[in-house]
Amino acid sequence: MDRKPANLDSTPTQTRPLSPNIQIYRPQLTSVLSIANRISGLVLSLGAVGLVVWLTAAAAGPQTYRVVQSAIGSWAGRVVLFGCTFAFFLHLCGGIRHLVWDTVHGFELRSIYISGWAVVGASVALTVGAWVASLFIAGWH
Amino acid sequence: MERGRFRSPLARAIGLGSAKKGARHWFAERLTAVALVPLSLWFVASIIAHAGTDYAAFIGWLRAPLATSFMILLLIALFHHSALGLQVVIEDYVHSDAKFAAVIAVRLSCYGFAVAGIVATLRIAFGG
């Protein structure tokens, strides 16, 4: 796609605004979830690096593992982990929505909004549920 | 693009690359996504189940053959999916010569992190 033959491009006589001009549109659920899926994917890529750091620390021994665990357990660490949890569930639910679309289902405007709000609701519920469960289990251990 | 109208379909297609593997990136992204649904849910559920436990409990969990296998599969699917996704983001927003270099850097970083994660998992599984 990026190697267009040069003779197909007409030479612009002046600099014209490029399409799409996303800044002139009012944010809608569809567009917000689209960019949220991309941003959460970027966040999770960094989270994946964090997972490797965590595994490497655990492989190095209990002292190194404790350092990483205390970093995760700190106030800032918990905020980052909470953000990663929300990004995970948002990307998971949004990804499942995409997989359903791949089967050529749910493209009607009504279905798009129903599945969109379902993704928002499920991501929030699963994030809160996961943290409530882990805090409950942590107290129980 | 007006001039394209007067060209034959073949002439317009020449130079745009092969159509035979056009769906490869798309399919690999879906394949890894489908794999990541159970693997990532297993990982998150395991972490929640081990909240508040110590190093020995964590090592004991990851040493079980099933957990070791799932973790390695997770790392492969996760970094393959990341590489594919990040490549699309780069292709959408980077339009300079840096695009090609960025795609290669992301690809190689993902492979490197995946191997580092797998080696760490194997060290935990088979270490003394």
Largest interface: A-B, 42 and 46 residues
Oligomer: heterodimer
Major sheet summary line of chain A: none
Distance between the termini of chain B: 66 Å
Secondary-structure element pattern of chain B, one letter each: HHHHH
Strand content of chain B: under 5%
Q: Helix/strand/pairing class of chain B, anyone? A: mainly alpha
Question: How many β-strand stretches of chain B?
Answer: 0
User: How would you sum up the major sheet of chain B?
Assistant: none
- What is the overall shape of chain A? extended
Distance from N terminus to C terminus of chain A (CA atoms, Å) equals: 55 Å
How are the SSEs placed, and which strands pair?
The complex is a heterodimer of chains A (141) and B (128).
Chain A: H1 29-60, H2 62-73, H3 75-102, H4 109-140
Chain B: H1 9-13, H2 24-49, H3 55-63, H4 65-93, H5 98-126
Task: Describe the fold and architecture.
- The complex is a heterodimer of chains A (141) and B (128).
- Chain A is mainly α.
- Chain A is 74% helix and 0% strand.
- Chain A contains 4 helices and no strands.
- Chain A has helices at residues 29-60, 62-73, 75-102, 109-140.
- By secondary structure, chain B is an all-alpha fold.
- The longest helix of chain B has 29 residues, at 65-93.
- The mean pLDDT of chain B is 91.
- Chain B is built from 5 helices and no strands.
- The termini of chain B are far apart.
- In chain B, helix 4 runs antiparallel to helix 5.
- Classes of the chains: A mainly alpha (141), B mainly alpha (128).
- The A-B interface holds A 1-5, 7-10, 38, 41-42, 44-45, 48-49, 51-52, 55-56, 58-59, 62, 65-66, 85, 88, 92, 95-96, 98-99, 102, 130, 133-135, 137-141 and B 1-4, 12, 14-17, 30, 33-34, 36-37, 40-41, 44, 47-49, 51-53, 55, 58-59, 62, 71, 75, 78-79, 82, 85-86, 89, 91, 99, 113, 116-117, 119-121, 123-124, 127.
